[in-house]
UniProtKB/TrEMBL annotation:
Record flagged with keyword Transferase: yes
Domain PEP-utilising enzyme mobile: from-to ranges: 530-600
Keyword presence, Kinase: yes
Full protein name: Pyruvate, water dikinase
Keywords, alphabetical: Kinase, Pyruvate, Transferase
Annotated GO MF terms: kinase activity
Amino acid sequence: MSTDNNRFDYFHEASAPEGADGWESMYPYYLVPSEETREHDDSKFWFADTMHWSRGVHPFDSIGAEAVYYGAGVFSTRIFSLPVSLGLDVRVFNGYVYISPTGVTDPAMIQERAQYFQKRAGYYYENWPSLYEAWKTKMEGVIADMREITFPPLPDYDPDEVVFNATGRSVSMDILENYHKLIDQFLNAWQYHFEFLNLGYGGYITFFQFCKNAFPLIDDQTVSRMVAGVDVLAFRPDGELRKLGQLAAELGIVDKFPEDNDPEKLQSALSGSAEGDQWLAEFEKSRNPWFNYFTEYGFTHDQDTWNDDLSVPLKAIADYARAIADGQDISRPVERLQAERDEIVSEYRKYLNESEAVQFDELLKLARTVFPYIEEHNIYVEHWTHDVFWKKAHELAEFFVSAGFFENPEDMFYLNRFEVDTALADLVQAWAIGVSARGKKRWQAEVERRKPIVAAMQSVTAPPAYSAPPAEITDPFAVMNYGVTTERVNDWLSSSKGAPDTLNGIPASPGQIEGVVRVLRSEKDLPSLQPDEILVAPITAPSWASAFAVASAVITDIGGMMSHAAIVCREYGIPAVVGTGFATARLKTGQRVRLDGKKGTVEILET
């Protein structure tokens, strides 16, 4: 363990959680720190991506870390060639995902890359609307292709069609091809994800940096409010919940909603009446596709969508319906946000000369054009694509069980994607030959070895970082999205973790409020949130929007000015402080705090 107060442990200095020895063997070698990569790993600063992976990942689920940072890297480094930034390097350590920004400092290389970036990014910015529509078509194609994938049980004999249609090959080949297609389409989805995301951030960051140079005293939050009040697809799922809540109030059926939000009880209570049947019909219309929405971030196989657990959206609908019945206005304050936005723009623009004002207008227009994608991509990729991907992965797991290879569908997820490919080849070839799979006992024993390892890794929280941080954190993605700033890293390094009665974070959404906190560890804790409590969580997923109709404010451990939590809080007009680092560790449910979303501080009023 490091005794240097200026750095965190290196990977090779840290030990595995008790019971997790041998965890490294579960993941692809290139995701795991090793002796071969020690010099490189020690030279870089790694921080935990608990925004997307809030717990240690099962071996199969590590495909997400591959796909995300493959896509992010290739578009930053090789395709659009961001001048000063390459990709985010990735490691899995003790089951948690860690990433490290890779910058470019050589002036000659920056100039070379800038020439590529200006030409390529310029083409996308100039043609953004049409290219974005084409992007949606590509994503819909990936989702449709995934839906067509099947893993039916292998028959005793190949069907007659193999002979009488002279296909010349066994249907068992379809199993192998479909698995590869599933993996390839998942990787494709994450290539498409970053086709626009880096440029979306780039457009906003260019405007952000212009404002910082033109108005030296402007704060980050004020810049972000200049692009607020934009209608994006990401708010549609919550909009469906609000619409259904409004309809329930109008039809006078609010009292029919069961306290435990049980969908079968609600169906029974509403069926048969004109009002109830009308509401149930609208509910079914909303479910597809808007309830194909993860309650968390959708990066692991064990997360549910709203359609998987209807009690989650039903609770939100009931809360909205009761609020409306009580005379409350639950609409998103779009007009107020737009009025504030326009007032801020007008106030600052008058300090610019004519040429500066023209540049300001152009950059603001670009930022507002690209900004919706920063949120909307979540619907297509993390929710709709991931929903289909995990359902097909579960179907594959059932295929293994039906063939007698695994005892339980959950067993498959203790193998990484390459091991699943090997096991599948074993199964199919053994079936073809007419013998038992050669590796059945081998893999069952390995699964039993790995189960307690995964449990041990998930029983502990991820250290925020490893290795020595740079003197200044300058990577815009780390700062804007993750809230990993120089100040936050210094807080992490401090043995006292800051003053005992204050938490410091990113001022994400303006407003001051005093209230009682409710600490939520995951989406499964959402039902315990009470009206007017301050929601405290490691991070809030985009799908938590309905909770903002209940909470009076939000505090998170991780997240920056452009994280989903920050954006959603601003759009719903809720005070928020994100990226505090230790809120869930230091705050307890029932404590009273004073939050200042303008300053980014949380004062603890009760110990």
